[in-house]
Amino acid sequence: MGVKGERDGPSPHRISKEKPNQNLKNIMSNLSMEQWGEPIGPEVMVHSTSQQAVEQLAGEIAAGIRKRTRQGGRYVLGLATGSTPIPLYEELVRLHREEGLSFEKVTTFNLDEYYGLSPESEQSYHHFMQKHLFSKVDIAPERIHIPDGMVPRNEVERYCAEYEEAITQAGGIDLQILGIGRTGHIGFNEPPSDDSTRTRLVTLDPVTRQDAASDFGGLDFVPKEAITMGIATILEARTAVLLAWGERKQEIVSRSLASSPSSSIPASFLNLHQDAAYLLDEAAAPEFQPA
């Protein structure tokens, strides 16, 4: 299945599919699969724990980095923030420290940043990424790209176009890590966001702001806007992996998997991607009932 704007060249890896349990067969039935082995939507992989899931994904990322390094190229990694990817970053740091995984040839692009927050703010995603990954591995600062939340408003459109161009100049994103919000957002693409959207300034949904309130010491302190990659930008990644842990994510995961691509559930556009996966723990796994 092709994707508009699809990059040339193969992904350096493909997330391996596990034999589905009954729940996964039911999930795929809801995605109109005729039979297992002929998927038309994302792969769905359920692990007993989130730690098992991130160990699998970190291993795939490490293999991709090492393959590109041997080939003399660079590996381009799209990164997410929030509590969900923290265990993944911890595992990547462990691989760096204990197994010699080098990030010297890795280039990164983060999905988003709150608008109006300086990089030095403890709530900024610049600070988050330094705390959980960048300060602990051997990545060159010039290879790190995070949207600038302090761009003057009259320069935002130009800046966002430059962010898109930087991704293109890097050769496109090899693997994009995603979380999912209660609104169905990926990045900060809130409903209604469709698959034509590019990096831009957006208004955050009240639900998203409420979910972030504890991090900011209250709802009044949560920014109302953010700069985010668009859905079209995300879909151009060679591989996209959405992570979700816990019962709190089960409902929106179920809805996004069962939905036709719709701007009302932005994550549902992953159903169009040629190489996408949902990586879940058991608590987040949908419970579709057999027909």
Automatic annotation (TrEMBL):
<dbReference type="InterPro" id="IPR004547">
    <property type="entry name" value="Glucosamine6P_isomerase"/>
</dbReference>
<dbReference type="InterPro" id="IPR006148">
    <property type="entry name" value="Glc/Gal-6P_isomerase"/>
</dbReference>
<feature type="compositionally biased region" description="Basic and acidic residues">
    <location>
        <begin position="1"/>
        <end position="20"/>
    </location>
</feature>
<dbReference type="GO" id="GO:0006046">
    <property type="term" value="P:N-acetylglucosamine catabolic process"/>
</dbReference>
<dbReference type="GO" id="GO:0004342">
    <property type="term" value="F:glucosamine-6-phosphate deaminase activity"/>
</dbReference>
<protein>
    <recommendedName>
        <fullName>Glucosamine-6-phosphate deaminase</fullName>
        <ecNumber>3.5.99.6</ecNumber>
    </recommendedName>
</protein>
<dbReference type="Pfam" id="PF01182">
    <property type="entry name" value="Glucosamine_iso"/>
</dbReference>
<dbReference type="InterPro" id="IPR037171">
    <property type="entry name" value="NagB/RpiA_transferase-like"/>
</dbReference>
<feature type="region of interest" description="Disordered">
    <location>
        <begin position="1"/>
        <end position="23"/>
    </location>
</feature>
<feature type="domain" description="Glucosamine/galactosamine-6-phosphate isomerase">
    <location>
        <begin position="49"/>
        <end position="274"/>
    </location>
</feature>
<dbReference type="InterPro" id="IPR052960">
    <property type="entry name" value="GlcN6P_deaminase-like"/>
</dbReference>
<dbReference type="GO" id="GO:0005975">
    <property type="term" value="P:carbohydrate metabolic process"/>
</dbReference>
